[in-house]
Design goal:
Elements (H helix, E strand, L loop, with lengths): L3 E6 L4 E6 L2 E4 L11 H18 L7 E8 L5 H11 L7 E6 L9 E8 L1
Parallel strand pairs: 4-5
Antiparallel strand pairs: 1-2, 2-3, 3-6, 4-6
Helix pairs in contact: 1-2
């Protein structure tokens, strides 16, 4: 069995876990929920970039992405930011759903799994 590496491990959860050739990131959320959907998506994606780097990966190696939107009406605005962030030809499998998030001011949460 491969060693498990926990990144930014806290008492409740790790921000990411590396096992073998995969990094599993927790759901990334915006820190500043006063921003609109564009700002919140950019914040979450920046957190993903940071975590992937800590785990020895990057956005070109993302295999799957699960995106939760508080309001599906933000789908187009979210996709505009997402499309500018991903690398053409390196896009992951993705699912986007509407969900009630734990902070009413939060508009998005994104969770990814990537190769290392």
């Amino acid at each position: 069995m491969s060693d498990i590496k926990r990144i930014d491990c806290g008492p409740r959860m790790s921000e990411a876990v590396v096992l073998g050739d995969r990094i599993h990131c927790s759901g990334m959320i915006p820190e500043d929920t006063s921003q609109g959907i564009t700002g919140q998506v950019k914040q979450a994606l920046a957190e993903i970039d940071s975590l992937l780097a800590k785990g020895g990966s990057d956005k070109t190696k993302i295999l799957t992405a699960t995106i939760w939107l508080a309001d599906v009406a933000d789908f187009s605005a979210m996709n505009a930011v997402w499309d500018a962030w991903v690398v053409p030809g390196q896009t992951p499998a993705q699912a986007t759903v509407q969900a009630k998030l734990n902070d009413p001011k939060m508009k998005i949460e994104i969770m990814v799994v990537a190769a290392v």
